[in-house]
Design goal:
The chain has about 240 residues and is an alpha+beta fold. The protein has five helices and 14 strands. Strand 8 and strand 9 form a beta hairpin. The termini are far apart.
Length: about 240
């Protein structure tokens, strides 16, 4: 294994990680952030990079095993680093009841060929709001006009803190579009071809989300947080936006 000292922490790389990519891994925003936070909150004695999944030139998933201690006891050290993400609950108010936009996409890690979920994506070193707008453009379409000041931050949560570093920031936005625009969205094919994304858009009633079955935590949590926010502050004008 190749060993490099980073901020006083010895970092080793498994032979399976190409030596010419070690510097890219060390410079990856999600690796740097995790290392700095872990070193400041734990007695971090060493980090071994066991494997890395690259997406072209971009550093993707990083599997690490750390020698870490807290309060005099060693803690489980395995972690999958993939960085943070954002999602957007788009609420279409032009019809009653309100509707929303879901992506229908194959998700191999959970062996589901047609997972229904909110538009979402990874930060990849970007900022929260700009990433949310970018993902809406990529997964829904550039004809959906959403500005940064229209986004409402619902919360930020860790998705699986026992094994993964990812935290997701959930946003919502109220939109009033006409029936023709809504029909153009329903069934639209989108996705980033470079990342092998195959997405079909689905327009459903907002209150149908809890019963759709094949979905994920961010979709259900965003729905309930949005409904709770509306119950406390009726009307779109009362929803205070939180931007960068």
């Amino acid at each position: 294994m190749d060993t490099v000292d980073m901020d006083g922490i010895p970092v080793t790389f498994a032979v399976s990680v190409p030596p010419d990519r070690h510097a890219d891994v060390r410079a990856a925003p999600h690796f740097r952030r995790w290392l700095l936070q872990a070193a400041s909150r734990f007695d971090l004695r060493a980090v071994a990079v066991r494997d890395v999944v690259f997406f072209g030139h971009r550093v993707g998933f990083i599997l690490v095993e750390a020698d870490a201690w807290h309060a005099g006891r060693q803690v489980p050290g395995a972690a999958l680093l993939r960085g943070d993400s954002v999602s957007v609950l788009v609420v279409l108010l032009s019809r009653h009841p309100p509707r929303t936009i879901l992506t229908c996409e194959p998700r191999l890690p959970v062996a589901c060929p047609d997972l229904l979920a909110l538009p979402a994506g990874m930060l990849d070193g970007g900022q929260l709001v700009s990433t949310a707008l970018r993902e809406l453009a990529e997964e829904v379409g550039t004809d959906l006009t959403v500005r940064a000041d229209m986004l409402v931050e619902l919360t930020t949560v860790w998705l699986s803190p026992g094994g993964c570093d990812e935290a997701i920031t959930l946003y919502a936005v109220d939109l009033d579009i006409d029936a023709q625009a809504m029909r153009a969205l329903d069934g639209r094919r989108t996705g980033n071809a470079c990342e092998h994304e195959t997405i079909h858009l689905r327009i459903i009633d907002l209150d149908a989300i809890p019963g759709i079955g094949r979905t994920d935590a961010k979709t259900l949590l965003s729905y309930h947080l949005y409904r709770n926010l509306k119950d406390r502050s009726p009307g779109p004008a009362d929803m205070v936006s939180k931007t960068e």
